[in-house]
Amino acid sequence: MTTIAAAPPDAADIGSFEVWIEPLLAAGYRLAYAMLQSQPEAEDAIQDAALRAWAARHRLRPGSDPAPWFMTIVANQCRQQRRSRWWSVLKGGDVPEGVQPPPAIDGADLRRAVARLPHRHRLALVLRYYLDLSFEEMGRVQGISAVAAKARVHRALVRLRAEVPEELSDA
Amino acid sequence: MHEDEFRARFHAALGDAPDEQAAAQRAAAALHRQPPPEEREGPPRAMVLMAVAVTGLVLVGLLGPRLLRAGSRATSPATAVVPADCRLPVVVTDARALVPQYSAGFVSLATGRFVGDPSAQGGSMPFSRRYVRDQWSPQGYDPVLKRWLPVRPSQVSPDHRAYVYILASPLATGKGGEFDSTTLHVYDVTTGRDHALWTSHDQLGADPTWRPDGIHVQTYPAGGGQDTYWTIDPATGAAARTAAPASAAVLATAMRTYRIDMGVEFGTDGAGRPILLDAGSGAGAPQVYFVGGPNGRRIVIHSGRRGDAVDFEVDGFVVDGERLWAANRDATAIWLWSATGGLKRFPMSGVASFDGSVTPRLVGPCV
Fold first, then answer.
1. Which pLDDT does position A85 carry in this prediction?
2. Is A23 close to B27, i.e. CB distance below 8 A?
3. CB neighbours of A67 closer than 8 A, spacing ≥ 6?
4. Which residues of chain B have pLDDT under 50?
5. CA B207 to chain CA centroid, nearest Å
6. S-S: B62 plus which of A65, A109, B154, B215, CB 3.0-4.6 Å?
7. Which one of B23, B28, B130 has the shortest CB-CB distance to A18?
8. Does A38 touch chain B (CB under 8 A)?
């Protein structure tokens, strides 16, 4: 995960904040794009996330890692933007844990299947397989333990297989 | 399917984010286009209100412990008299460019006019660095040395001969977590000598503060964990663990007592009491700037709503004995507050705000 100086910007101006947060914007944009699958929406999300980060920077405790803090803001922004569009296709119900990653499937099908996942599952897969975060880093973004992050990835993979059973039949 | 193979397919299915660098630059630029809260539909209003309120989270101006005892309301009227012919040192931040530009000068209290000071240059004075790209900028004006310094007034020794600053090692490039250690350095302004005083492999939580009993530092483990407070002997570098400052407890009490959800701490006043902003929650909620007294007692500096006729919109305070000074973020007013004298406004001119992109910050007492 991209990291920057842990201390919040000392200067009392938005320009200094911009310089401070700039190393995180590209990674935040990647996360937004993977979550939203739309360049304009991803740009909206990262811009709003940057503003929210500035507004909330007093909540970042000095000395703590700002990268997961900012990623959390981006993820929340993505959830807000997609909530209305995807609400109707979310599916409930528990699924068993402990599966292996699904087999090769067509990219478009996989993309659609990922898009239909609930936010928390989609976020887990994006953080793990798109941004290549460790379970510890994932946990810090999602506000859960590394063990819980790992479990969430497993549940997301199960859910993904449920979304595209024909392509994952040999999994 | 192996995890790495799935990762590759997953990434290929979602595709690369297009125009990544341009998107990041546009996001950075968007910070400068933030419209007033009334025009935004995205973030909650309270959040935006906070965004405006926190432009200056960090405070200035601790000149060391003062004579007041915490909780005392006694204030000498003589010390609260406004020195009508004094000048307040100001650093102006111009954030219109990608890299902010700083200039420094003085605001005359008599005329309200800001005049730049061409002597506000760094020369050879060292300054705190965490990033490779960090550059010298004026951060304080010392009334005894009569010099601009690259550190906040709280980092200057009580005898005004030296200041403390920090150097991270290695300096961060912004592309990865290279942090290894942070070293406190002391620079003697009168002799030009510099020496390393103390090194920590934890991260420093805030700028160090130089008080009569030593240099106070707060550290956090790089991987997360408990805060630790230290007092460093400026002569020997010996470090002693100390308790959390009393202002922290006062702050916690005030936050609980007044159920502050959205708040900002601006540091402490001359008596060591926290200066706070209760930004309220919800549209039109009053914003209360106050000094946190003992047992949750609140000494109000100003209570009002954003955009009201008083127009008290400040980002920080400078401690000047029992007085607190502040500048409006739109560079139109200087404020003076004391417990006995209340709040007084002085007009300010000479700094064009450019819709909030250029902001003034007071960096020292009135001289």
1. 36
2. no
3. A1, A2, A3, A4, A24, A27
4. 35-80
5. 10
6. B154
7. B28
8. no
Q: Which of residues 237-296 of B touch A (CB under 8 A)?
A: 263-265
| CB atoms B27 and A7 under 8 Å | no
Q: What is the mean pLDDT of chain B?
A: 76
Q: Which residues of B330-348 are buried (b: 16+ CB within 10 A; e: fewer)?
A: bbbbbbbbbbebebeebeb
Residue B302's pLDDT is what? Answer: 93
| Preceding omega of B294 cis (within 30 degrees of 0) | no
Backbone torsions φ then ψ of B231, nearest 5 degrees: -120, 120
For B21, counting Cβ atoms within 10 Å of its Cβ (0-12 exposed, 13-18 middle, 19+ buried), the class is: exposed
Divide the 171 residues of chain A into consecutive groups of 10 and give the mean pLDDT of each group: 47 67 88 84 83 75 77 84 37 31 57 81 91 87 85 85 59 39
Query: Measured between alpha carbons, how far is B351 from B359 in angstroms, rounded to an integer?
Result: 8
Distance (Å, whole) CA A170 – CA A161: 10
Instruction: Enter the tokens of residue B348.
Output: 């300010």
Give yes or no for A40 touching B (CB within 8 A). Answer: no
Q: What is d(CA B47, CA B93) in angstroms, rounded to the nearest whole number?
A: 23
Per-residue confidence (pLDDT) for residue A79, from 0 to 100: 77
* A115: nearest CA partner in chain B: B14
Q: Give the integer Cα–Cα distance in Å for B131 and A49.
A: 24
Q: Which of residues 189 through 218 in chain B touch A, CB cutoff 8 A?
A: 202-207, 218
Put simply, whether A33 touches B (Cβ < 8 Å) is yes
Say if the Cβ atoms of A18 and B58 lie within 8 Å. Answer: no
Q: What confidence tens digit (pLDDT) does each residue in B169-205 have?
A: 888 765 555 568 889 999 999 999 999 999 998 877 6
Mind telling me how many Å the CA of B31 is from chain A's nearest CA? 6
